[in-house]
């Protein structure tokens, strides 16, 4: 039911072209997953998400266990039926919430004690419980529970969390029972290459069908993230998919693909869309800027999304008037942009032209930033 087919590695870098087969369909890699934390991609209905070109979406174990509860989702036919999404779904384990809700958590070897961000009630999440929730949700890919900590932290704290992540991954593997769900492990280790490689070696020994690089995009510099990826991917088996969690900017995606990463997720397309920022190859367009008040152009001449059927002047008006259509349209545009970026990346890898593709994108984004830095347009 699950297969990973590595079809092509670019002749000039480590960029990979491959296909992931799941019970709910194929995913052409490299790919970007829209984030549907609570069973919905914020502001965009699931039909429109599919129209952006998305192949797989992500949801979250912690949030869905809180509401409506995994037993409710299971009773309604599982997460695919619940969301109305027929394609593959990946569920995060709840490990990121150990970091993002750190003021509400207590981590022990047995698991994590949360205080609900909704009503303060206690919630216990162990590796076994995380797997059980994800099996009840019925996602195609489940993630092992890991211990994510803030950076920077002391080496002792990072090593402790890394070692615990490996032990928890083994417990998750031992608890998994569903043949319709693949369980992937998560490499931790902070920004220290030695810890990352050690963690990856130990997880590979446990023989998971896929591996993620976690604990990044938590405030470190971009160069530090890229160096961490470079230290990790060579240790991971070539015949298994590689997933960089929670990343990120378009620049980060093209840089990570060049370093051998296959799969991404991030809230950035929709979060920025809700805040009137639209991504393009010439850099971001800030739709609230006064310079767009009489602008008859679409966001992007190359884009055929719903937002780009309207002019910038109208889109700016929607945000100024606080009409909900503005954030919806900008989010649809950004999701479409990310999917087109990944489609072009796959085509470039097939043609052994990924290095030129990467450099061209980076030049365009850098030029766009320079133009914006030199502009003096009031918001």
What does this structure look like?
- With 379 residues, this protein is of the alpha/beta class.
- It has two domains: 29-266, Alpha-Beta Barrel (TIM Barrel), CATH 3.20.20.105; 275-372, no CATH class.
- It is 41% helix and 17% strand.
- The protein is built from 14 helices and 16 strands.
- The protein has helices at residues 46-51, 61-66, 70-75, 79-83, 95-100, 127-137, 155-175, 193-205, 222-232, 250-258, 268-274, 312-320, 325-350, 354-374; strands spanning 3-9, 16-22, 25-29, 31-34, 57-60, 89-92, 105-107, 112-115, 122-125, 141-143, 182-187, 211-213, 242-244, 263-266, 277-278, 285-286.
- The strands form four sheets. The chain has an eight-stranded parallel β-sheet. A three-stranded antiparallel β-sheet has the order 1-2-3. Strands 7-8-9 form a three-stranded antiparallel β-sheet.
- Strand 12 (211-213), helix 9 (222-232) and strand 13 form a beta-alpha-beta unit.
- Helix 6 crosses helix 7, helix 11 packs antiparallel against helix 13 and helix 12 (312-320) packs across helix 13.
- The longest helix has 26 residues, at 325-350.
């Amino acid at each position: 039911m699950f297969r990973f087919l590595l079809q092509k590695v670019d002749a000039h870098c480590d960029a990979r072209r491959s296909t992931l087969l799941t019970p709910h369909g194929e995913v052409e890699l490299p790919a970007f997953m829209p984030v549907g934390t609570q069973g919905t991609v914020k502001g965009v209905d699931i039909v429109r998400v599919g129209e952006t070109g998305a192949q797989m979406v992500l949801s979250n174990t912690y949030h869905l266990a809180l509401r409506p509860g995994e037993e409710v989702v299971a009773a309604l036919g599982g997460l695919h039926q619940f969301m109305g999404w027929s394609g593959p779904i990946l569920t995060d384990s709840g490990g990121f919430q150990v970091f993002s809700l750190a003021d509400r958590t207590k981590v022990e070897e047995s698991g994590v004690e949360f205080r609900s961000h909704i009503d303060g009630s206690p919630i216990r999440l162990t590796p076994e419980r995380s797997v059980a929730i994800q099996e009840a949700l019925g996602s195609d890919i489940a993630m092992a529970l890991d211990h994510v900590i803030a950076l920077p932290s002391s080496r002792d704290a990072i090593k402790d969390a890394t070692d615990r992540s490996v032990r928890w991954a083994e417990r998750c593997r031992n608890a998994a029972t569903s043949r319709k769900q693949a369980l992937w492990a998560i490499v931790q280790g902070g920004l220290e290459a030695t810890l990352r490689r050690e963690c990856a070696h130990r997880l590979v020994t446990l023989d998971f069908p896929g591996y993620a690089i976690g604990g990044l995009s938590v405030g470190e510099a971009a160069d530090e993230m890229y160096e961490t990826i470079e230290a990790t991917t060579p240790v991971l088996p070539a015949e298994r998919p590689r997933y960089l969690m929670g990343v990120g900017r378009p620049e980060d995606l093209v840089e990570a693909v060049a370093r051998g990463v296959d799969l991404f997720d991030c809230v950035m397309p929709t979060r920025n869309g809700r805040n009137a920022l639209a991504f393009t190859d010439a850099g971001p367009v800030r739709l609230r800027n006064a310079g767009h008040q009489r602008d008859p152009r679409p966001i992007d001449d190359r884009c055929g999304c719903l937002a780009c059927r309207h002019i910038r002047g109208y889109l700016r008006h929607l945000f100024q008037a606080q009409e909900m259509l503005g954030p919806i349209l900008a989010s649809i545009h950004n999701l479409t942009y990310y999917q087109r970026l990944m489609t072009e990346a796959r085509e470039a890898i097939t043609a052994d032209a990924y290095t030129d593709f990467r450099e061209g994108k980076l030049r365009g984004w850098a030029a766009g930033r320079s133009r914006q830095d030199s502009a003096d347009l009031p918001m």
